[in-house]
Amino acid sequence: MRSKLYAALALSLLISLNLSAFKKRTTPTPPKQSQAIKVLREASEGFSEVADSAIPAVVSIKACFEPGNSYDPNFNDFFYHFFGSTPQQSESSVGFGSGFFVTDDGYILTNNHLVKDAANIKVSLYDGREFDAEIVGTDPSTEVALIKVKGKNFPYLTLADSDKVKIGQWAIAIGNPFEFKASVTVGVVSATGRNRLGGLSWENYIQTDAAINPGNSGGPLLDINGEVIGINTAILTKTGGYMGLSFAVPSNIAEHVAEQLFEHGYLQRGYLGVRAQSLTPDLAEALGLDSHNGIVVVDVAPDSPAQKAGLEQQDVITEFNGKLINNQMNLTHEVSLLTPGTKVTLTINRNGKVKQLNAVVGAHPMVQNTKETPPSISSQNSLGMTVENLTPAYAHQLGYDQLSGVLITQVKQNSQMAYASVRAGTLILSVNRQKVSSVAQFQQAITQASKNKHVLLLVRYGKITRYITVSFK
């Protein structure tokens, strides 16, 4: 009995010694950390710190739309789909996206295309709370919208100075892609001042390679300080998913628009009334100029601020208020940010001589100056379509640069316009032989025409112009 007890004790001691040796052998030796690894660890901790601080201020937005006024999922984040190739829906539809608080009393910045014309909007916070939101104002030209929920003491984000954003700096995107809440992606700023994207009329975007997908629209793009440098708005894709090219509205533009939406409910855009093109070396040589810096004026609108200032065709604009100008979008951007009535200075080269012209910025003719009549208006009539003003971006994209009219952006199924084989992207040139160049003129002409059974429309789609006769129900 005693021998068995001794054997058991010996075995137990042996096992204990083996386990101790195993633990000793398997305890990892802390790796020697290089300075590079320490830097990476600090960067990782920095990203986590930004995410922890910012996520509570980022919201999920659910927008519900009535039949015939539906949210176009293709317009959520993609440029390739413009004017929607998806079938228009006869039932109510729902759109999902992102936004973020910019004040502690409930003001939220997001994208215009996410909430415009929504019947109701639900906002969900990271902590699970839900609120009904109302639209303060939207601006299709910049894709910026300001909405509000009732309450106090909300976490909010600070807007950075986007003019100081540099190519190559870190960019952190937060949003709700595919309804996965509070998703964080990291990349760098790939470019600034991006234009010619084909989707929007105010083009001055920050490009990033931070992964953006459907549902990220309206969410913040942050710098390493956790401040907002842009509103994630679009991606360029052939597949419907992320391909490495994402675009955000710069925070300075968003802040300017938000202030005006808060004050007026719409954006007051400055206007000069000049069309110009980039001055290439060949064009500079043809004009007898030594330098190809600037843009050459190709058209000056009659009775416009530009004409009153003395600007002429073939003048080369080199500076605007002391800032170098290299393309039309630079000038459009600078002018649009100014309040009508602002005095500006144009530096021009005319026949080899440098001159300065003084101008007073006017109000953009396509902007209605009342809150009840915003710049982009849906035409409510029995013809079954939605029309908007023809912006320069729409005109350039669709080949309507030299034309004026109103643009059809949506046609209801089983409507009179659908029966007439009219589709979105069609330009209405005249109503009953009366030219129309704004939504207000169109509505007035349609109201007058509705006294009869039929209306005669002159329309253009692509390069084809034709008359159509449509019946009123």
The chain-level mean pLDDT equals 81
Total helix count?
10
CATH topology of the largest domain: Thrombin, subunit H
| CATH second-level architecture of the largest domain | Beta Barrel
Structural topology:
Blueprint: H1 2-26, H2 35-54, E1 58-65, E2 93-101, E3 107-111, H3 112-115, E4 120-124, E5 130-139, E6 144-149, E7 170-175, E8 183-194, E9 205-208, E10 220-222, E11 228-235, E12 246-250, H4 251-264, E13 270-271, E14 274-278, H5 281-286, E15 295-300, H6 305-308, E16 316-320, E17 323-324, H7 328-336, E18 343-350, E19 353-360, E20 362-363, E21 385-389, H8 392-398, E22 406-411, H9 416-419, E23 427-431, E24 434-435, H10 439-449, E25 454-461, E26 464-471
Antiparallel strand pairs: 1-2, 1-4, 2-3, 3-6, 4-5, 5-6, 7-8, 7-10, 8-9, 9-12, 10-11, 11-12, 13-20, 14-15, 15-16, 16-17, 16-18, 18-19, 21-22, 22-23, 23-24, 23-25, 25-26
Can you offer a commentary on this structure?
- The radius of gyration is 29 Å and the shape is globular.
- With 473 residues, it is an alpha+beta fold.
- It is built from ten helices and 26 strands.
- It has three domains: 53-264, Thrombin, subunit H (Beta Barrel); 270-363, Pdz3 Domain (Roll), CATH 2.30.42.10; 385-471, Pdz3 Domain, CATH 2.30.42.
- A hairpin with a 4-residue loop joins strand 5 and strand 6.
- The strands form five sheets. A six-stranded antiparallel beta barrel has the order 1-2-3-6-5-4. A six-stranded antiparallel β-barrel has the order 7-8-9-12-11-10. Strands 14, 15, 16, 17, 18 and 19 form a six-stranded antiparallel β-sheet that branches.
